[in-house]
Design goal:
Elements: H1 6-18, H2 23-35, H3 37-42, H4 44-48, H5 51-55, E1 60-69, E2 75-86, E3 92-98, H6 104-120, E4 126-132, H7 141-155, E5 164-167, H8 174-188, H9 208-226, E6 235-239, H10 243-254, E7 258-263, E8 267-270, H11 277-286, H12 294-297, E9 302-305, E10 317-320, H13 329-337, E11 342-344, H14 353-361, E12 365-367, H15 369-372, H16 375-389, H17 395-419, H18 426-445
Parallel strand pairs: 3-4, 3-5, 6-7, 6-10, 10-11, 11-12
Antiparallel strand pairs: 1-2, 2-4, 7-8, 8-9
Helix pairs in contact: 1-2, 2-6, 2-18, 6-18, 7-8, 9-10, 9-16, 9-17, 13-14, 16-17, 17-18
This protein binds NADPH dihydro-nicotinamide-adenine-dinucleotide phosphate.
Length: 448
């Protein structure tokens, strides 16, 4: 993969130089700029107004100390981040990730991707992302609470219902959002929709928990139907066993597929009888245990150490729902050798650039994350709308809006790819369609 347009190639080099040691950020920039070559050529006014240069530079990066006290009375210090990347079309919006691998480059890559994803939803939300290198694994509830309170004590001065509205991501689920929201309310004395993914008793939206996984399946289903097929009777491999994976599994099963794998960062399970999702929810959501517990109940299922092997299991459809770069070229080849027909990304950038190229070159239908996993943030925007109007919608209303949004996103990606002579290339279509809306808004607002 390489950028041929001289202006964009030089811009990419500048980004790399200016942001050293941030390979994930460089990877995301390269993919987007490569897709935008045709746009740059057709719209020289964007170059003149510095739109490309501005869009790769975050509007603001906030980096802060997060001190907290563990259960043994020891002071611990983590690092917190919020990258407010682009507010051209609305308040910054994007999740918070708590994971030891978090650093500034990871948050920048996620924030950058978020700009285009949020644009694709058609809703008024800008791009942002945040998090910490804090590891929630093995911490008590009280430790999690103290950490979240300390994190919010600093973050609260930078966010707001009309400024920046964070949500969950890896390591930040309902429990963490509750503690973060409680601290925000205490410090600011405001009951507003400053976070999404809230509990239903204090302003959360029905179907938000399910939204990313369900949305992924609605997108995949639209893609499959466009090619004369569906989930019905298909075998599906899913990686991860967190929020996105669990609800992707649920919806795929409802749509008639048999899901046979799930994983966590230690290993993966294969159940050729179809995943028992009630058991998975009990293990992961209630007991917060490892996925390996599954085979203690279903003794005919298999557990394998290591994550990568999950892509060697034969399937029709693969839905990577764990983390970035989990599906590389070798895994893509294994899926192709086993006859995979579609790969749709539930996680953010789970497929490496080489893996993506291999899948596309071999005719595998490929749904890129910024389009296929946009259901979570879209439903977060619906949560914001409910909070602003002080109303709560029923599950069916939110779910049917979500489905409509995902089908629209699929249509937009197809149309943009076709318009720029890359029919069927949803990676290019998502980047172009996502970019154009933001670029138009930036252009209209002048050099700011
Ligand atoms: P969760 O924390 O709920 O689950 C993450 C899952 O991925 C866990 O099973 C975890 O295993 C596994 N995982 C995490 N890191 C790694 C790693 N380095 N290697 C292998 N497995 C790993 O997070 P979510 O389900 O919310 O998020 C999953 C992905 O989806 C992320 O890429 C996120 O950015 C993306 N996403 C999430 C949205 C949401 O609404 N939640 C919206 C859009 C995208 P373990 O428990 O062992 O860590």
């Amino acid at each position: 993969m390489s950028i041929k347009n001289e202006y964009l190639a030089e811009l990419k080099e500048r980004v790399v130089k200016r942001n050293p040691n941030e390979p994930e950020f460089h990877q995301a920039i390269e993919e987007v700029l490569e897709s935008l070559e045709v746009v740059a050529e057709a719209n020289p006014e964007y170059i003149k107004m510095g739109i490309f240069e501005s869009i790769v530079e975050p509007e603001r990066i906030i980096k802060f100390r997060v001190p907290w006290v563990d259960d043994n009375g020891n002071v611990r210090v983590n690092r917190g981040y919020r990258v407010q990347f682009n507010s051209a079309i609305g308040p910054y919006k994007g999740g918070l990730r708590f994971h030891p691998s978090v650093n500034e480059g990871i948050i920048k890559f996620l924030g950058f991707e978020q700009i285009f994803k949020n644009s694709l939803t058609g809703l008024p939300i800008g791009g942002g992302k945040g998090g910490s290198d804090f590891d929630p694994k093995g911490k008590s509830d009280m430790e999690i609470m103290r950490f979240c309170q300390s994190f919010m004590t600093e973050l609260q001065r930078h966010i707001g219902a009309d400024t920046d509205v964070p949500a969950g991501d890896i390591g930040v689920g309902a429990r963490e959002i509750g503690y973060l929201y409680g601290q925000y309310k205490r410090l600011r004395n405001e009951s507003v929709g400053v976070l999404t993914g809230k509990g239903l008793s204090y302003g959360g939206s029905l179907a938000r928990k399910e939204a990313t996984g369900y949305g992924l399946c609605y997108f995949t289903d639209a893609m499959l139907r466009d090619h004369g097929t569906s989930f019905e009777g298909k075998t599906v491999c899913i990686s991860g066993s967190g929020n996105v994976a669990i609800y992707a599994c649920e919806k795929a099963q409802t749509l008639g597929a048999k899901v046979i794998t799930l994983s966590d960062s230690n290993g993966y399970i294969v159940d050729q009888n179809g995943i028992d999702l009630d058991l998975v929810k009990e293990i992961k959501e209630v007991k917060r245990q490892r996925i390996s517990e599954y085979v203690k109940v279903h003794t005919d299922a298999e557990y394998h150490e290591g994550c990568k092997g999950v892509w060697t299991v034969k399937c029709d459809i693969a839905l990577p729902c764990a983390t970035q770069n989990e599906l590389d070229e070798e895994s893509a080849q294994a899926l192709i050798d086993n006859g995979v027909m579609a790969v749709c990304e539930g996680a953010n950038m789970p497929t490496t650039a080489e893996g993506t190229q291999k899948l596309q070159a071999n005719g595998v239908l490929f749904g890129p994350a910024k389009a296929s996993n946009a259901g979570g943030v879209a439903t977060s925007a619906l949560e914001m709308a409910q909070n602003s109007s002080r109303l709560s919608w029923d599950f069916e209303t939110v779910d049917s809006e979500l489905k409509k949004i995902m089908e629209n996103i699929y249509g937009k990606c197809c149309d943009a790819a076709k318009k720029y002579n890359m029919e069927g290339n949803l990676v290019a279509g998502a980047n172009i369609a996502g970019f154009l809306r933001v670029a138009d808004a930036m252009y209209a607002q002048g050099v700011v």
